[in-house]
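This is your field. Have a critical look at the following sequence-structure pair:

***
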Amino acid sequence: MPLTTLQKWVAIERKTRASPPSKFSLGSAEQLEIMRLRAELEKATIERDMLERATAFFARLSS
């Protein structure tokens, strides 16, 4: 992957994160809850992907 592509992605992400808060900004408790839920979702997604791969692996072994 070209370095410029990665630099563009980083620049876009920084702009997105640096955007000013909206008039419906959340309090710190809500922000923490969102962060916790995102981390939990990421973990569940990784576990699901691993289980899918394991299922495919064992399906190939049994056939």
Notes: The mean pLDDT is 84. Helices lie at 3-17, 28-62. Residues 28-62 form the longest helix (35 residues).
